[in-house]
Design brief:
There is one protein chain. The chain is α/β, with parallel strands linked by helices. It has 2 domains: 284 residues, Rossmann fold, CATH 3.40.50.1820; 136 residues. It is 23% helix and 26% strand. The strands form 5 sheets. A 9-stranded mixed β-sheet has the order 12-17-19-7-6-20-11-14-13. α1 packs across α9 and α2 crosses α3. The longest helix is centred in the middle third of the chain and has 20 residues. About 3% of the residues have low confidence.
Amino acid sequence: MTTLVFVHGWSVTNTSTYGQMPQQLQQQAGAAGMSLTVADVWLSEYVSFDDAVTMADLVRAFDHALRDLHLRDASFDCITHSTGGPVVREWLRAQHDRPGSCSTIKLGHLVMLAPANFGSALAQLGKGMFGRLKSWFSGVEPGQRILDWLELGSAESLSLNLDYIHGEDPLARGQFQFVLIGDRPDRALYDHLNSYTGEDGSDGVVRLAAANLNARHAVLSTHGAGDSDTLALNLSRGPRCAFKLIAGASHSGDAQGIMAHAAADTVQTILRCLSIRDAAGYTALCDAFDGENAARDANKVELEPAGPFAPRVHIHDPCSLLIVRLGDEAGEPLVGAGCLFTAGTPPSADLMPAGFMLDRQSNSRQRANVSLFLNYALLAGDSRVADPRNSRKTLRAAVASHRPYGATVEPLDLKGLVHHALASSAAADDLFSLLGAHQTTVLDVVLSRKVHEGVFRLTQQPPPHDFSKPLPGDVIS
């Protein structure tokens, strides 16, 4: 077997974060027909808790560390946790974009455990006063620049992921990528000051959809719509990526953490990934994972013990992450613009399913980038959810789909020499097609700029005259 490199996540300061996983992989690799010795395994120690360190710095240092290994066949496999996934993916992009600056070492298998590929809702809190106090007591800095990357809707994470969606399929270069993530938070680690740590649809830190690389890029634009106030839809899908939910695992912690706990299912799934040798095998594993995920989604009720009281009920519906970037044809962000979703025919916001919007978060640096966490099951329509303790009891009645779904965008500047107009998606486009279960979609909404004749006029009147209050005139076509 080739060299195996482990890469940890954000704010880690001790290699104990890897738990028993390296040892368990070594022990079980033989049974899977693989040769994995201590000499083949390397544990990373990278610094993410220094405010001066950027993602580009980590990529550069990672490349240098790989060169120092003097790999016998100039190749390696990699297992990452959390932020480690984006670090290695940024290195892969640097290899492709800057071949003269990076090594030519080949990565064969990339197994990402709970990767924050599209970021984490917790990143904003890590940058806040609460996170800084925690870092101060721990004797380290919060790692501001890495947290900037990890914030939902950051320009840096979107750049990487859009390159991936529109780029070459990793299979074409003989590379196999996998995403494994726990399907629920560890309730014992719930922070009552931070509800994100117990958020259904996440592993307590990373949303399932934000880890998944089966992503889409959609554009709603007035360009080509025929009507300057109608938004036409264009949709692109990225390469297929093997994605697996690890039942009962969470992001971290000794009891349920996907890394430290090293549950048998996690280790066996990693070995299934590392055994892939060709595109046909990879496609078959993707299909198998999809079937296993569907079985998990069908058994989605969790009963959380609550001491002497009745257990708390969690319905683990598949969710979607929609990252909306509001802008215009000149690339100007439309900060403060409203985006209203509608359902049915004729379209109405009142027909949207109750409870479909789970969370909304604006990026702190790019305020026009808004991440919406949506309940995919409610939008799609869902069958009755029975109580596992008594199948004749109903936890949630059947929910009908309210399709087709649309959107109306209302900018703040509806008047002026230069302004934007109210725009709506085309009646023929059902925006449900943008979404996928446990998946992320980057949605660019691009409005046309209404520029009036009064912005620039020519005159042949010789006498001086005041034009400080110009007449708008018609909109320039």
